[in-house]
């Protein structure tokens, strides 16, 4: 804990990212106490500007924008973490097994990964979401599938470099099973870069989920979701810019926080960088 605090003091951007993410989490968790219902319609307040009653104004249906941003933030953060967790588990398991087995198995498994990586992840997510049907669950599944190949490729590289080390060869000579070697030796010693990738992937998952919501392939009305709210308010941008800029700004700040934390984790897991900064 003390070492982590020293690291944050030496890295102001990392400290800023952690503080920003903590503030976002605190705001979205306290959302029900700070703002009214995000789906309550009040046509008398339609497109109302920011005021004491509606701090960020109201949208076309008179719904409180702040409420929708905070409520949508809870869903978006949960989706981002859940999507990356799915992609991490399946992508890492696939990549570790491929790199450790080698030979024809590695070749066949990596050609499948290469085929998926040949598509931009957002394009692949859009295609999968359109094929599965518009819903938040399908959007999460589509983004997880689109992100998993990145973890598979990185995990394979870690497995290739670690599986030839002496302690792994000693475990093989002692009769350890493939599962035990991957779980006890390869994964713990290659987890650093994968965690860095995961922290950066959360921002990417939030962007892709918001993009699917913007296109109508994610959360469906009246559920609050940042991408869908930007899309719904875009046609009133001249009259009520706050209705679109508030969820858009929330996306920007959240992705920025995760990217700064990801960069900091990269330095944390780099022994040479940590030694230079000590």
What overall geometry do the principal axes of the alpha carbons give?
elongated
**What's the β-strand tally?**
0
User: Which H/E pattern describes the elements?
Assistant: HHHHHHHHHHHH
Summed over residues and divided by their number, the pLDDT gives a mean of 85
- Biggest β-sheet description: none
Low-pLDDT windows of residues: none
Helix-residue proportion: over 70%
**β content, as a range?**
under 5%
Number of helices: 12
N-end to C-end Cα span: 15 Å
- Alpha-beta classification: mainly alpha
- Rg from C-alpha positions? 22 Å
Write out key terms for the chains shown.
single chain, 278 residues, mainly alpha, 12 helices, elongated
Give a structural overview.
Helices cover 76% and strands 0% of the residues. It is elongated and about 75 Å long. It has 278 residues and is mainly alpha-helical. It has helices at residues 2-10, 12-29, 31-34, 65-101, 103-117, 121-132, 136-162, 166-173, 178-214, 226-233, 241-268, 271-277. The protein starts with a helix and ends with a helix. It has 12 helices and no strands. Helix 4 (65-101) packs antiparallel against helix 5, helix 4 (65-101) runs parallel beside helix 7 and helix 9 (178-214) packs parallel to helix 10 (226-233).
